[in-house]
Amino acid sequence: MTTIQKAWAQEAWAQTVAKVDKTSKRIGDGFPHASVGGEYKLEPAYWWTAGFWPGLLWLLYRDTKDEGLKQLAESCEQQLDQVVTDYYRLDHDIGFMWTLTSVARYKLTGADDSKRRALLAANLLAARFNVKGSYIRAWNPWREGEDNAGWAIIDCMMNLPLLHWATLTTGDPRFKEIAVRHADMAVEHFIRPDGSVNHIVIFDPATGEKLSVNGGQGFAPESAWSRGTAWAIYGMSLSYKYTGDEKYLHAAKRAAHFFLANLPEDHVPHWDFRLPDGIPAYRDSSAGACAACGLLLIAEQVNGQEASLYREAGERILHSLYTNYGAWDSETEEGLVTHGTSHYPEGKNIDVPLIYGDYYFVEGLSRLLGHGELFW
Ligand code: GLY
Description:
Layout: H1 3-27, E1 32-36, E2 39-42, H2 52-64, H3 67-86, H4 94-109, H5 112-126, E3 129-130, E4 135-136, E5 151-153, H6 160-170, H7 174-189, E6 200-203, E7 210-214, H8 226-243, H9 246-261, H10 285-301, H11 304-325, E8 340-343, E9 348-352, H12 355-368
Bound molecules: glycine (GLY).
Keywords: Glycosidase, Hydrolase
GO molecular function, one term: hydrolase activity, acting on glycosyl bonds
Enzyme class: hydrolase
């Protein structure tokens, strides 16, 4: 990074630290998801976003050593114990939840109780693997009569690092084997030839036969949900990091090229890259922040000019989020990064700050500033 680029990232970091110092007084050890009307709504501990706030607090603690933030993150992690006991609400998002709480704390402090929790979570995630279809099952039947035993989703690529971590920590290859088989399935069935991705692929859970695709949080089955593309960029580059298998790097690059080629002028994506006329093209800043982290990780794993290309693309997105989307000086907005879109088809949390947008923005800054290893 040039000195000028470093200067903006340092400035953004200082603003982030100051803002979170304030917001943490209200949010405390709660589980924010979307900031509606300027205030983060808190969700139950079982909600899939439960790891992002404590993960963000750990990113800041690593630099500031602020004991207050550490205690909040630890309290969030302890509250997740009840989610394991309750069991019924657990789904594929175990990876998001325990990577940014227990794995993060274990990596930063070596705490044995966090290692135990993360290993338990990895076992529960591994148990969702469908051996016939080679996919980690998404969700559960949340509503009466719902049958989603055959569903797999692109988001789940971000859950795989928990399995890789478990193999590295225990020496037991089963976790990694499941992660590799799920990632291979995703390369085959999710990443389309043009680099766009499917959100949901449906298999016959008994035979493993692929049945259909579903638009999920994107506009339509054949459209291109931008956050799904971001999950693919980052998830595939993480799979490459853990395995060295070039097919994951190629998949990450393909998704990255599609993502970059479809960005508007300010480098922050619309919520879907293929919207028909008449459908509102809200931005999804969270997709931009997550993709930026994936681009930075690709850059770290390739050389020379190619590395500069991916790194600069990631920096451009983060810089635009900082200058055009940040709520730094707002006393009436708790979110850091505005204009995220959580679930347009269900009309939920549209054009608002999202905690995962904030998390990935802060992770991206932390990478630019060289603060330390990934929690993933
Ligand atoms: N399903 C996780 C997401 O909204 O990206």
